[in-house]
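okkk here we go again. third time trying to get the 2-acetamido-2-deoxy-beta-D-glucopyranose bound version out, last two times i messed up the smiles copy paste (missing a bracket lol). double checked this time i swear
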Amino acid sequence: MKKQLQDHKSSNHISSRLPTLISVSFLITFGFCFGLVSSLYVRVSFPSAQTKQILFRSSPPRPPPSPPTLSPPRVVQDRSFVGKQGIGQNGYVKPRNFMHDMEDEELLWRASMVPRIRKLPFKHAQKVAFLFLTRGNLPLAPLWEEFFKGNEGSYSIYVHTDPSFDWSVPKSSVFYGRRIPSQVVRWGTISMLDAERRLLANALLDFSNRRFVLLSESCIPLFNFPTVYSYLINSTEVFVEVYDDPGPNGRGRYKSTLKPGIEFKQWRKGSQWFAVDRGLAMEIVSDEKYFPLFQRYCRPSCLADEHYLPTLMNVRSFWGTANRSLTWADWSKGGPHPARIGRNEITAELLQRMRNGSACSYNGRTTRICYLFGRKFLPNSLNRLVRLAPKLMDFGGS
Ligand SMILES: *[C@@H]1O[C@H](CO)[C@@H](O)[C@H](O)[C@H]1NC(C)=O
Ligand SMILES: *[C@@H]1O[C@H](CO)[C@@H](O)[C@H](O)[C@H]1NC(C)=O
Ligand SMILES: *[C@@H]1O[C@H](CO)[C@@H](O)[C@H](O)[C@H]1NC(C)=O
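finally!!
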């Protein structure tokens, strides 16, 4: 453009001044318009980092919305509208979409919020959250279906499974749509605890969840739902094992790099399979002190899943644990893993033994019900369990 102007300048000598003025102002106007249009164009096609983020956030990959209802629009206090569109109670109390687009950091932060007013301003069911930490599918799902049947409203289910696993569950299943945004878990590493925290955090988003039980794909219920529910909901204590194992599989797994945050004498062990209340679940997802230490120093493998929670309970002096796991396992064969139970091992007598244990303390009294769940059941045990459940465990068979 500069060159063009110069050309005009040089042509001044031979032409009159008026046409030159016109062409110069034309060029200026044209240049201005071109600049304006092109800057607008650039803005539209290349949004800034900020707008990009907003665009991305507002369209997460959500499941398709439920079809609109045909009832006439109401003007008065339509709370579902507020919950969906803006700041409203329902967004917190009854999250409509189970899936979310939060990263772990965002999820844990969101889940760590505690209302300071204790009394809830709405009616709510007290639910037990069943957290399934699995590698792939749930081979014993049909038994669990029988267990949950007819108890809708008293439980929530959350499944964490390998992200590469093709999770397909029929719409009629209680497990339908209950898979949370999951990540790869390598057994024995800290990624297992990441998954447990992810499960807890997802379940904490629902205020109705009052108790949180961790289960695996090889777990079975030993009693019917009402028994399990009332045992958990009515318990004045949480169920986390906390003990000091002086051997190589206990103290031997302590890493001195954990000092000074966690001293050798504070190191504890316990079963991974916990049942906790909201308060402790909240402490676990919001622990900014000890969890990062485990992340950094509990490696290569120090089996954080057996040590993190018991050690946290100990260093923070959390009392109020029944100091036992509710999940039965057969350790009689020795070794680092409990025995697997297949079709041929299952007998009525074995199940009775799990259900009717030795004396355990419950809310200050003694009970023979020490375990509500059992592991590790192989997939081939399913048919036998489904057949025995109505007679022995008082559920199913309808
Ligand atoms: C909890 O215990 C109380 C008193 O023993 C009982 O009335 C109530 O039904 C129990 N709640 C559940 C959910 O079982
Ligand atoms: C839990 O029980 C073990 C014995 O099994 C005991 O050594 C330990 O001190 C108990 N822990 C708590 C916190 O009561
Ligand atoms: C549990 O075991 C004890 C002792 O073996 C027995 O007396 C009791 O009847 C059993 N209870 C049930 C419900 O099976």
